[in-house]
Amino acid sequence: MATLYTQQDKNIRKTWILFSLFLIVVIGIGWAFSWIYQIPEILYFAVIFSIFMNFFSYWYSDKIVLKISGATPALRETHREIYNVVENLSITAGLPVPKIYIINDPAPNAFAAGRDKNHAVVAVTSGLLEMLDRSELEGVIAHELSHIGNRDILISTVIVVLVGFVALLSDIFLRFSLFGGSGRSRDREGRHQSIMMIVGIVFAILAPLVVALIQLSISRKREFLADASGALLTRYPEGLASALVKISKYPGSVKRVSNATAHLFIASPFGPKEKRPFLGSLFMTHPPVEERVKALIGEKL
Q1: What span, in angstroms and rounded, lies between the C-alpha atoms of 207 and 41?
Q2: Which of 14, 109, 230, 290 could form an S-S bond across to 143 if both were Cys, CB 3.0 to 4.6 Å?
């Protein structure tokens, strides 16, 4: 039977697997380029770069996520309620109080990020603070603290940087294949361009699918687990359920969001437009709110 500790161990293993896959993929790409162009320095660069990116994403991915989201530190004087809620629930959960950030955005949403419980942050939108009552806000914060306690935040935050780099690589491949690189002879140049064209197109097609699958593999189950853990923390699942319904009914989307950061939020930051039928629903970053509410209280609000 899965416990909180087995879930934490599982998340740590997933993070190391993700780091290892990233190293293998980048070094493999570097090796392919160095072989095609007979330039060994490309492989050396790929090795150094992949190690650097893993190090960088582990230590600084939370800062990147906050920067991308436009989050700024919350001041205790102006955001006393959110401070009280976070501090009280952190004490109840036995966690250090995370840093609190505000995203100036009318769309209600929130996320947690960081590499561990001692270096965690919780970010909420200004719309969330305006729209939710106290019990609903406690439900949301309890959910985010559960992500911190379950150690979901490390892999969720790291993947933002690595996934962003995969998207960047696909773009570089496509541009390189379209405009070509330098070769040592006309025949070799033509052959190299053809190979790069094929690799670029395949990579550009597969990269978004791989990104979506990786996000799905870490996103949906952990949301249900964090919902359950959050409900246990507040002992009032109706608060979180009501908050999820309010968030899902907001007609707009979070302004500063991308496919790389969407999985971090408590509910889809893209708003109702992500409620797509059939094939589109397979690639939603979050489980349907109806299912989450049903799991929390057994019925729709």
Answers
A1: 25
A2: 230
Query: Would you put residue 250 in left (φ > 0), alpha (ψ -120 to 50) or beta?
Result: beta
DSSP-derived letter for residue 266 is S
What is the C-alpha separation between 277 and 295, in angstroms, rounded?
21
Per the listing, tokens 């780091």 go with 19
Mean of per-residue pLDDT scores for the chain? 80
Lookup result for tokens 């205790």: 76
Q: Which of 117, 123, 171 is nearest to 148 (CA)?
A: 117
Which among 136, 138, 144, 223 is annotated as catalytic? 144
Contact between 227 and 240 under an 8 Å Cβ cutoff? The reply is yes
Q: CB count, 10 Å around CB of 169?
A: 17
CA distances (Å), 134 to each of 139, 209, 240, in order?
A: 9, 39, 11
Q: Is the pTM of this model over 0.85?
A: no
Each residue's pLDDT tens digit, 117-159: 999 999 999 999 999 999 999 999 999 999 998 888 887 777 7
User: What pLDDT was estimated at residue 203?
Assistant: 64
Amino acid at 122: V
The DSSP code for 23 is H
CA distances to 178, 196, 236 from 25, in Å: 22, 16, 45
Residue by residue, what is the 3-state secondary structure of 28-40?
HHHHHHHHHHCCH
Least confident of 18-22, 49-53, 222-226, 252-256: 18-22
